[in-house]
């Protein structure tokens, strides 16, 4: 099953226009270690260059280059011809992710720049292109080993170490172009309210001019049946409307909600009309679902939710952070479900929008987590905040996302236990996130040393179930900082205290089979039976602890030197899925 307007490989599946140009594939590429390219005007005359396969970075085998040494400045070039019949429309050049700073030129003219390796962005290149002719796009990507830029699990030294892997430099997500009307729908924010059977749409329009007399006509369907049709006047840049989606098309109301068991999605179609002429046509979808916390319990659609999550870092052996193709994304989600998990924690990565689409379609719960910085100063605060405030609105409409995780294990805020500045920074991010999205829980900071947080999450890699039960039987000792865990960490930072939040063990396990290279958590196991006994006892101990509302096992697959996945890096199972599933569901 897919949504009505699903297009394979379309890079932005929650906001679909059917006419688009895929710019992935072969580009010219050049290193610029001396950073002389701008002075030498490479944007006008590109130097002798090799080829690269976009969107794979030069560090990956899939790119066709496969050089892992760090190069701070890289350049890309390609030509494209825009159809003459699109003359008069705006040409919008989209980049779903470029790490870290992108500067763009078209036909030798500077277009603009964007900073931040994980957020999507675009340039309106209309003033610089000629329709019906060849046009040159040049992009310079500037990266660094600076720990004030959000970098997630990317290393900042020459070699991999601990849980930090080969860096990602340049274009690493899809590149594409669309030709659109000057007056168009810029974005739609969709907020479900299942208790009132309502969905709120917040439309942003662009290119409006006085006297245009535009109307937005919208159609909502479920399972092919019309639910609601509504119209509104597009007479200003921001327009909101609430729509009642109570209906009988999908059967009783509860059967129309989105959940892992029944991931119902409503298709919605938006037409911007000037008289009888369609000037913009966008397809989207939404899920009617509610995530809430009441009396120390996490509820999905007003019912208790026990979360069986798995840590997912989203790395592949030949393409690193970039999925090799859309089917690889689907395959990961299906494997996770087959092992009995109902969700995942996307760790230190803002994932491809197509992945979130398939989580929406298949009913996979997602914790969306920001890539960390590793220093704390004013520049790190600025960079982190700016990019996070781009990402949350970009991901807001996905029903699969049920939790925001801006910070993890005090990374980027290393003295948060007692440093007031670092504590206030995390408080600020918490409240800014809530200002955009008051409907999802926010975790600050995942693992330990929380400040303000809607959920108390704990990371503990203790190996034996008996040892876990001995430490966690007394809830008060854990949640009130009475005892430490995981190498002398405490649940709360100084000055903060437990106030009834749900408790989740959001990292545990990390069991690795015996190997001479690579690492896992604790002692390595020699046999499948030894693995299953350890996996079963620690999982059962967590599930037997009544105040714990869920868990997140480390992890889906091996990642470079970290070999504690349930799958190898090329997605081969180490243990039969049915045995993992039985333990998760027992």
TrEMBL record:
<comment type="similarity">
    <text>Belongs to the glycosyl hydrolase 2 family.</text>
</comment>
<dbReference type="Pfam" id="PF02836">
    <property type="entry name" value="Glyco_hydro_2_C"/>
</dbReference>
<feature type="domain" description="Glycosyl hydrolases family 2 sugar binding">
    <location>
        <begin position="22"/>
        <end position="141"/>
    </location>
</feature>
<dbReference type="InterPro" id="IPR006102">
    <property type="entry name" value="Ig-like_GH2"/>
</dbReference>
<dbReference type="Pfam" id="PF00703">
    <property type="entry name" value="Glyco_hydro_2"/>
</dbReference>
<dbReference type="InterPro" id="IPR006104">
    <property type="entry name" value="Glyco_hydro_2_N"/>
</dbReference>
<feature type="domain" description="Glycoside hydrolase family 2 immunoglobulin-like beta-sandwich">
    <location>
        <begin position="183"/>
        <end position="289"/>
    </location>
</feature>
<keyword id="KW-0326">Glycosidase</keyword>
<dbReference type="InterPro" id="IPR008979">
    <property type="entry name" value="Galactose-bd-like_sf"/>
</dbReference>
<dbReference type="InterPro" id="IPR017853">
    <property type="entry name" value="GH"/>
</dbReference>
<dbReference type="Pfam" id="PF02837">
    <property type="entry name" value="Glyco_hydro_2_N"/>
</dbReference>
<feature type="domain" description="Glycoside hydrolase family 2 catalytic">
    <location>
        <begin position="291"/>
        <end position="582"/>
    </location>
</feature>
<protein>
    <submittedName>
        <fullName>Glycoside hydrolase family 2</fullName>
    </submittedName>
</protein>
<dbReference type="InterPro" id="IPR051913">
    <property type="entry name" value="GH2_Domain-Containing"/>
</dbReference>
<dbReference type="InterPro" id="IPR013783">
    <property type="entry name" value="Ig-like_fold"/>
</dbReference>
<keyword id="KW-0378">Hydrolase</keyword>
<dbReference type="InterPro" id="IPR036156">
    <property type="entry name" value="Beta-gal/glucu_dom_sf"/>
</dbReference>
<dbReference type="InterPro" id="IPR006103">
    <property type="entry name" value="Glyco_hydro_2_cat"/>
</dbReference>
<dbReference type="GO" id="GO:0016787">
    <property type="term" value="F:hydrolase activity"/>
</dbReference>
């Amino acid at each position: 099953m897919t949504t009505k307007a699903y297009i394979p490989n379309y890079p932005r599946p929650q906001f679909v226009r059917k006419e688009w140009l895929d710019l992935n594939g072969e580009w010219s590429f050049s290193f610029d270690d001396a950073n002389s390219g701008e002075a030498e005007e490479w944007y006008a005359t590109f130097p002798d260059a090799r080829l690269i396969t976009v969107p794979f970075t030069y560090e990956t085998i899939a790119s066709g280059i496969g050089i892992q040494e760090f190069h701070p400045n890289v350049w890309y070039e390609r030509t494209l011809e825009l159809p003459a019949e699109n003359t008069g429309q705006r040409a919008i050049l989209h980049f779903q992710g470029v790490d870290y700073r992108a500067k763009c030129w078209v036909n030798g003219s500077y277009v603009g720049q964007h900073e931040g390796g994980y957020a999507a962005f675009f340039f309106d290149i209309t003033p610089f292109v000629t329709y019906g002719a060849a046009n040159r796009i040049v992009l310079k990507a500037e990266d660094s080993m600076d720990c004030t830029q959000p970098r997630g699990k990317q290393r900042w030294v020459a070699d991999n170490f601990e849980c930090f892997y080969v860096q990602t430099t340049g274009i690493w997500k899809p590149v594409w172009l669309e030709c659109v009307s000057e007056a168009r729908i810029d974005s739609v924010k969709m907020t479900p309210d299942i208790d009132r059977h309502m969905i709120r749409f917040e439309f942003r329009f662009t290119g409006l001019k006085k006297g245009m007399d535009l109307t937005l006509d919208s159609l909502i369907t479920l399972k092919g049946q019309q639910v609601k049709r509504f119209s509104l006047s597009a007479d200003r840049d921001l327009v909101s409307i609430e729509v009642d989606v109570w209906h009988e098309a999908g059967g009783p109301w509860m059967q129309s909600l989105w959940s892992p068991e029944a991931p119902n999605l409503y298709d919605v179609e938006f037409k911007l009309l000037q008289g009888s002429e369609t000037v913009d046509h966008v397809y989207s979808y939404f899920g009617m679902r509610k995530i809430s916390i009441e009396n120390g319990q996490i509820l999905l659609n007003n019912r208790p939710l026990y979360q069986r999550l798995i840590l997912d870092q989203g790395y592949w052996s030949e393409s690193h952070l970039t999925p090799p193709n859309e089917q690889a994304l689907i395959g990961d989600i299906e494997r996770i479900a087959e092992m009995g998990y109902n969700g995942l924690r996307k760790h230190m990565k803002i994932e491809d929008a197509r992945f979130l689409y398939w989580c929406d379609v298949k009913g996979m719960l997602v914790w969306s987590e920001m890539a960390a910085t590793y220093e704390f100063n004013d520049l790190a605060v600025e960079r982190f905040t700016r990019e996070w405030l781009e990402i949350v609105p970009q991901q807001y409409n996905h029903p699969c996302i049920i939790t925001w995780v801006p910070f993890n294990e005090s990374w980027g805020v290393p003295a948060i236990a007692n440093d007031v500045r670092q504590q206030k920074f995390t408080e600020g991010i918490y409240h800014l996130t809530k200002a955009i999205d008051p409907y999802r829980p926010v975790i600050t900071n995942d693992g330990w040393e929380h400040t303000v947080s809607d959920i108390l999450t704990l990371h503990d890699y203790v190996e034996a179930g008996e040892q876990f039960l001995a430490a966690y039987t007394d809830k008060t000792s854990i949640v009130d900082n009475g005892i430490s865990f995981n190498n002398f960490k405490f649940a709360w930072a100084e000055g903060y205290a437990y106030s009834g939040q749900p408790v989740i063990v959001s990292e545990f396990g990390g069991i690795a089979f015996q190997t001479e290279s690579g690492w896992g958590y604790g002692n390595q196991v020699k046999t499948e039976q030894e693995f299953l006994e350890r996996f079963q006892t620690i999982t059962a101990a967590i599930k037997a602890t009544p105040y714990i509302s869920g868990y997140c096992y480390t992890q889906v697959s091996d990642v470079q030197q970290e070999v504690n996945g349930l799958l190898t890096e090329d997605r081969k199972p180490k243990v039969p899925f049915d045995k993992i599933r039985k333990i998760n569901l027992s």
